[in-house]
Amino acid sequence: SGYVKAIDPLGTQYKLADYLQAMGIGSFLPEWTLLVGAVLLAALEFSLGIFLLFAIRRHLVSKIVLALMSIMTLLTLWIVIANPVKDCGCFGDAVVLSNGQTFIKNIILLAIALMLQKWPTSISKKTQWIVINYTVIFALALSAWSLWDLPPFDFRPYHVGANIAQGMKIPQGAPQPQFETTFILEKNGQQKEFTLDNYPDSTWTFVDSKTVQTAEGYVPPIHDFSIQDNKTGEDITQEVLNDTGYTFLLISPNLSMADDSNFGTIDQIYECAEDHGYRFICLTASTEKEIAKWQNITGAEYPFYITDETTLKTIIRSNPGLLLIKDGTIIRKWSHNDLPTADALQGPLNKLEIGHLPEESAAKTITQVALWFFIPLLLLIIADRTWAWSLYIRRKIRKGEALLKKEEQKIMHNR
């Protein structure tokens, strides 16, 4: 839970904003405080998990875990009752649980936390300070890196290799949403409710009706993606997704909050796309005034199209961010801090590495991330134990030398 929050602090920030909005206090806190809260929450969860794994200060940690799980369980109880959000966001986009499943999960974890608090265990404290400090620093650094670049794991439906058009399709035979309509009718001054199955004769007078959804049905992974011209309103979604050539999509949910420090590189990529006949468009949820301001600041000549803000935030965790798609498939994604240079785009994209899906596998990425954590930690522990051992040896040597000197003085005195 802590790790998936740490690699996607913006996603955690959006979820915290949803909670505060549901509580009616979303407008009182600036966005940067939510981002800081998201990073600290991720660091807390990740650190507590590692401390439990290494049996570090279990007496204290078990109390903190119990307090945390008590708060989270009460929070998820409110979520089950009030249903302010569809899922709690406990595991980001990696594992999506319903509100009921989340509550059950927290009840189980709360019970384990109670047992752990009652029967804590601990290990030697000699290397605990290394694990504690390194774990906290690692979690904070992981969030910082994910904010600077992009999350090392992308659990969203717009990950590299995903086909947007396929993600929007509903398979044949998929369950359809179910609705039930209730009719309120009146006869002889008395009102009753009926359904289509027991609808009465014409002697009853219609008063009102209400329709409720009884089953959600199949919802495709991508169900809210559209591209509309910001001036004419023309929908070009299918035109873009069915394009057999390459298309660059500059993504900015809100241009007024976008980082404009790399606009020169963006303009160079646009010029390269123009030279080779590739489409380059900007997708945003900004107003005409905000678009005009961005054009004035950056000198942007590429066209702007409108897409839902939440969708854009889901597509890429960068504002702005850049996508390269072909035949509706996402080939590459870049943060505005790691955009491809003009030199890397010289020549037809189908002949360049950048124009093809990366070969890195999920297993390789998982191995790398695990090694990033455990190898430096192991080296630090070995270095600490080596230093402690050397101090021990030096103390033994000094003690031996002192004893030898004392014996020599005693012999000289006896003479």
State Rg: 30 Å
Amount of helix: 40-55%
> For the terminal residues, how far apart are their CA atoms?
75 Å
Mean pLDDT, all residues: 86
Shape: flat
Strand order of the largest sheet: 4-7-6-5-8-9
> DSSP strand (E) fraction?
5-15%
Order of helices and strands: HHHHHHHEEEEHEHEHEHEEH
Low-confidence stretches: none
- The helix/strand class is alpha+beta
Structure description:
With 415 residues, the chain is an alpha+beta fold. It is built from twelve helices and nine strands. The strands form two sheets. A six-stranded mixed sheet has the order 4-7-6-5-8-9. Strands 2-1-3 form a three-stranded antiparallel sheet, with no helix packed on it. The longest helix is centred in the C-terminal third of the chain and has 53 residues, at 362-414.
In short:
The chain contains 12 helices and 9 strands. By secondary structure, the chain is α+β, with helices and mostly antiparallel strands. The strands form 2 sheets. A 6-stranded mixed sheet has the order 4-7-6-5-8-9. A 3-stranded antiparallel sheet has the order 2-1-3, with no helix packed on it.
